[in-house]
Specification:
Elements (H helix, E strand, L loop, with lengths): L9 E2 L2 E2 L11 E5 L7 E7 L2 E12 L12 E8 L15 H14 L11 E11 L4 H15 L9 E8 L2 E4 L3 H6 L2 E8 L4 E5 L2 E2 L3 H37 L1
Parallel strand pairs: 6-7
Antiparallel strand pairs: 1-2, 3-4, 4-5, 5-7, 8-9, 8-10, 10-11, 10-12
Helix pairs in contact: 1-2
Length: 245
């Protein structure tokens, strides 16, 4: 028997946190926050907060792992032990974190010109310091912005957002309650300028019409988040120019 949520997920056209179904939480982006990294970003989707740091491109070690025609990208997704309200999380990587690390790497690779850096290595570290749903979506956005901050040539940014079913209603940017008690979940990553989808994970039971509507809402939410991300990158660029002069 499915456990009931502690509060109603949807009352009329309002969700438990007061948002409309098609409304994302407040999005905050800051670029260049980790001084010893080649590129970094902090991204917040509401109370979900992720720090991303990029190191590279650099020479691959051990050398036998290097690829002759492109760079290797490694992604490490990790949730800090203090990131949730539940019992302290074990700091060791879980099976879920290892799987999400792989999924995020596969979502990021199409956006990066890895072929420009043969025999090289790019490390992407993602630390979820506060979790309130949509952690992989926020992590994808943070990683993409950190790669851009590192000056690595990219085809486009990748912006992540989650879409779900709440009492039969399609909603974007799920919080933890909606993620836990909703009927379906779709984390999706989109390159907004190219319109390409690089992450698509479907959970739950969806009809074709609902899925089409979910993707449509995802594109719209990604456009909104992309606007905020682009302004943060522009701000970072102008700050770097002023520092150089």
């Amino acid at each position: 028997m499915t456990k009931a949520p502690p509060v109603p997920l949807l009352v009329g056209d309002r969700r438990s946190d007061g948002r409309r179904p098609d409304e994302v939480r407040p999005i905050e982006v800051e670029i260049g926050v980790v001084t010893n990294a080649d590129g970094s970003a902090v991204v917040s989707y509401g109370r979900t907060r992720v720090v991303a740091a990029v190191y590279g491109p650099k020479e691959a070690h051990p050398r036998h792992l290097a690829l002759p025609d492109k760079a290797i990208m490694r992604v490490r997704y990790h949730m800090a032990p203090f990131s949730t309200k539940d019992e302290r999380k074990n700091p060791a990587p879980s099976r879920r974190e290892i799987e999400i690390s792989r999924v995020l790497r596969e979502a990021l690779e199409p956006s990066v010109f890895l072929e420009h850096f043969p025999r090289s290595l790019i490390d992407v570290f993602l630390e979820v310091v506060q979790a309130d749903g949509s952690t992989r979506a926020a992590s994808l956005t943070a990683a993409s912005l950190a790669l851009a901050d590192a000056g690595i040539p990219m085809r486009d940014l990748v912006i992540g957002v989650s879409v779900g079913l709440i009492n039969g209603t399609i909603a974007v940017d799920l919080n933890s309650l909606e993620d836990q008690y909703g009927e379906g979940d779709l984390p999706i990553g989109i390159m907004p300028n190219l319109g390409h989808i690089t992450l698509f994970q479907l959970d739950g039971s969806w009809t074709r019409d609902r899925l089409v509507e979910a993707v449509r809402l995802a594109y719209r939410a990604v456009g909104e988040i992309y606007g905020i991300a682009r302004e943060a990158l522009k701000k970072r660029y102008f700050e770097a120019v002023q520092e150089a002069t």
